[in-house]
Amino acid sequence: MTATCVILDIGGVLEIAPETGWVQRWEERLELPLGTVHERMHDVWRAGSVGSISEREVHEQVAARLGLATPQVEAFMADLWADYLGTPNEELIDYVRGLRGSCRLGILSNSFVGAREREASLYHFDELVEQIVYSHEIGIEKPDLRAFEAACASLDVRPENCLFIDDVAVNIEAAQAAGMQAHLFEDNARTVTRIAAHLDAGPRAAGRVPPG
């Protein structure tokens, strides 16, 4: 419980996923007004992010709501996953890999049903850290404080001994509200410096309030 811990987000931190415009391309292809796909699929995307729908059901809803045949559904979902998975942030991943054994390591990610299998296959995040907490598996998304509590519980660490790294400011604020230390990811250099400082400081005394 007194171990020093680093917990990272995936999208925008360990994965770099710039806007690809894939949705707009599908809307043009299907001759749909701009914004139609997200309007029709919003509740499905939400359900997928908290695991209340299966991948098969996602495919069925894509077909029904967008009027797509099976081959089109497969192509649509392939584009979705290509956008979702982005490319690996190799520099940061290599740095985190070098931390193994010196601190507890975890991931806390707002995700989509099917993400674990694909990210394990492509990027081996399951080998990079000890625990991965996905929103679609626990049914809770950041910035809900319960997501951060789940991440700490999965690693059996105190929040005040954890440094959480995310690229979204509201998630940083929520992590701090949950008692964690937190760093807003902007680039690898500053993030590595912040992690190093966290590890140098070591575990904090129980009950001590971390700085904002």
What is the topology, as strand order, of the major beta sheet?
5-4-1-6-7
Stated plainly, the CATH topology of the largest domain is called Rossmann fold
Number of domains: 2
Estimate what percentage of residues fall within beta strands.
5-15%
Helix content: 40-55%
What is the CATH superfamily label of the largest domain? Answer: HAD superfamily/HAD-like
Q: How many separate helices?
A: 11
Structural class: alpha/beta
- Reported CATH architecture of the largest domain: 3-Layer(aba) Sandwich
How many strand elements?
A: 7
Largest sheet: 5 strands, parallel
Global morphology: elongated
Runs in which pLDDT lies below 50 for 5 or more consecutive residues are: 206-212
Radius of gyration: 19 Å
Q: Terminal Cα separation, in Å? A: 22 Å
How do the SSEs run, as a string of H and E?
A: EEHHHHEHEHHEHHEHEH
Mean pLDDT: 94
Structure description:
The chain has two domains: 5-17 and 87-201, Rossmann fold (3-Layer(aba) Sandwich); 22-85. The protein contains eleven helices and seven strands. It has helices at 22-29, 36-49, 55-66, 70-85, 90-97, 115-123, 125-128, 135-138, 145-155, 169-177, 188-201, and strands at 5-8, 15-16, 87-88, 104-109, 131-134, 162-166, 181-184. The strands form two sheets. It has a five-stranded parallel sheet with strand order 5-4-1-6-7, sandwiched between helices. The protein has a two-stranded antiparallel ribbon with strand order 2-3. Helix 2 (36-49) packs antiparallel against helix 3. The protein is elongated, with a radius of gyration of 19 Å.
